[in-house]
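Morning, I've got a small favour to ask if you have a moment. It would help a lot if you went through both lines with me. I owe you a coffee for this, so here goes:
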Amino acid sequence: MHAFDRPVGARLIALLAVSTAFAFVVAAPASAEQNQVSGVQTPGATGPPACTDPSASFTMTGGLVGCWYEDSIMITKDQTTASGIELIHVSGTEHFIGCLDRDGDGSCIGADPSGTLYFTFTFTEQVDVATGSEIRGRCHHPIVGGTGDFAAATGVLNFKDDIPSGTSPYMGHLSF
């Protein structure tokens, strides 16, 4: 059977499938490079070489080196369970200024790509109401924009709070 001998519906489905596949191939820029990143986010600006801006919310080390800023934060859900656990859901926007530390030297010197990354985020946390202590917390940060070498960046970072150390290890990917 020749393609034109098929019913119109079958030809339309085949055409849509080919068009969709072509769109995905064309949509990915040939120069986009995916970078796996991981490291640790520490509260406040901890000084050279990662972040020297005292207004920064966090210092980033590891795959991303620089300063992390909280821009907007909104509690979207807050409830307490019968067992005394408070469940908190927060969303907002944040940004990172620094570099992708390709050479692993802990600084943004040399050929490391640098700029600003913009994120939306959702954070969920469980807190023991009796003590006020965090039980667990995690965040999801899709990249929504960038500047400098990170212009047109895409990707996502995920954080999980390390409660004893007060830090948040992260991992994810960044394409630009």
